[in-house]
Design brief:
319 residues, homodimer
């Protein structure tokens, strides 16, 4: 399936793995790229540039196909050294998110890197085009992780972004199936980015106790927390997340909510499988995911369904 | 364009006008049906059964094509007499919403009426199928008016409903364009229901002062109120709506918020164009609507775009 995005990245299918803090490492990334999508290493998952460079090497041992690096700006630490690392390692694709990537545009583009910025609103989509990004990801309210503050869903955001920018648009938030891939293409997107769907795979390095819980969840089992500090995030509706929300509703201070939202608590829960620690990003589309499959089978299933949907739509075309 | 829903209703296009309290009257309804969609009179707009019967007659003078009646149950008053009126007038299609229509299933179906129930969740979709409804409308978080309490968006709800029920699914919430119609069909729906899009038409009887405001609004200009009483509703983000939300956030009583949410205040605002009275339902998709067109031109535009999108998708099919 050929789109502006598959052309831009030299990939087989218009399916991109979302940036997944702590989970976007070589086992998942290489599997996504090897299966014809685009895997993204999540820079923030690594304690240092050197660790990231090591995992870039590991990924290259596992696949000869293109992959990229996702760099979340301003969330955890200065990302300059990771940007330098990407250039040093000659990774051809970078996705940025979290804040304006303006300072990184010149160094990345001077080195031939394709730069895609992840935005939660049309306003920021236009800004990303202005500063020279090659494409944008627009993320709707239903997404796992960080939607915008205005709670606008993918249906509207994707169409509006396609109207307002001339660079290719990648749809994110609620896309996990072949049917939703075709929906995204209908809305004018050139690819989808899937986070939640790839969290529910065999290859992702995530404690089995969390992984086996995922297929049992429904579309009602996510919630938004961290609104009180202006950084809404959609997470699994665990007891811990509900406690956090209740604290926020009571006007808790940053100090009081910190044990729930710290990166350390999250990384510990990934390792130990104890969801009593930290919060765990998850999209509403988890309600459509009922198995833990290999990445290859997942992409096959998505593309198989996409082809069946196209066949069905062809029937309308003839009328 | 032929789908299970166009077949069921004998209509040309899989486009259904949403139930619009105070606005779903003969001028709009006849225009939608005449243009090849399905118009729905909103029973709650009429003070009595007799008034509704009169408007059914008016609609029949304006179009010979099929139209239906939307009956919101349990929101304003007992709807038994309106159901009796529909049967008496031999209207062939009823959409119910707001509460379980179980008591009306037998009388309606015994009289050959097709019954569609509007639901905000998969659980209620299954219930509607169980009690004998002919189809369901499933409404996502982005909709104008009443979404569910669980804030799940159309992207996930439509797909999940299609998996879980065997009666046809109509997608609502965020659908206003030809691209989104094809997205809905991709997700497995057999039609879309559009509310907000038909509010922004020449024919709808709505004060010009409100109407001319609509094309200027963006996708960020709606908000949800009435959560405090367990009946979330998405409305235009007017000063009045923001005041109401602030009151709710401070724990206001039902009595305190009543001036904002009463049906009388709403109906007065429709007549006077004064949005300082009441709240005005509106979906996020308003951000994609930039003109007030006739219903005929609107449906032409939607179907024209839908055909162009199908043509574009055909290109993927060949790859």
């Amino acid at each position: 399936m050929k789109t502006a995005i598959t052309d831009m990245f030299g990939i087989q299918y218009p399916i991109i793995q979302g940036g997944l803090h702590g989970l976007g490492t070589s086992p998942l990334v290489s599997a996504v790229s090897e299966a014809g999508g685009l895997g993204l290493l999540t820079a923030g998952s690594f304690d240092s540039k050197e660790e990231m460079l090591l995992d870039i090497e590991r990924t290259r041992h596992l696949t000869s196909k293109p992959f990229g690096v996702n760099i979340a700006i301003g969330i955890r630490k200065p990302m300059d050294e990771y940007v330098a690392g990407v250039i040093e390692a000659e990774v051809p694709i970078v996705f940025t998110s979290g804040a304006n990537p303006a300072e990184f545009v010149k160094p990345l583009k001077d080195n031939g890197v394709k730069l895609v910025h992840v935005v939660p609103s049309v306003k920021f989509a236009k800004k990303a085009e202005e500063i020279g990004c090659d494409a944008i990801v627009i993320v709707g309210y239903e997404c796992g992780g960080h939607p915008g503050r205005e709670d606008v869903t993918s249906l509207t955001l994707v169409q509006k972004a396609v109207r307002e920018v001339s660079i290719p648009v990648i749809a994110a938030g609620g896309f996990s199936t072949g049917a939703s891939l075709i929906a995204a293409l209908s809305l004018g997107a050139e690819a989808v980015q899937m986070g939640t769907r790839f969290v529910a795979t065999k290859e992702v390095v995530l404690h089995e106790r969390i992984k086996e819980k995922l297929p049992q969840l429904t579309e009602n089992d996510t919630m938004i927390v961290k609104r009180s500090i202006g950084k809404p995030i959609r997470v699994m509706a665990t007891e811990q997340a509900k406690e956090l929300k209740a604290l926020e509703d009571k006007g808790a201070t940053l100090e009081e909510i910190m044990p729930y939202i710290s990166g350390e608590a999250y990384l510990e829960s990934l390792r130990t499988g104890d969801l009593g620690k930290g919060i765990f990003s998850l999209g509403q589309t988890i309600g459509l995911i009922d198995t833990i499959a290999s990445v290859g089978d997942t992409i096959d299933q998505v593309m198989g369904e996409a082809r069946r949907v196209l066949k069905r739509l062809e029937h309308y075309e003839k009328l």
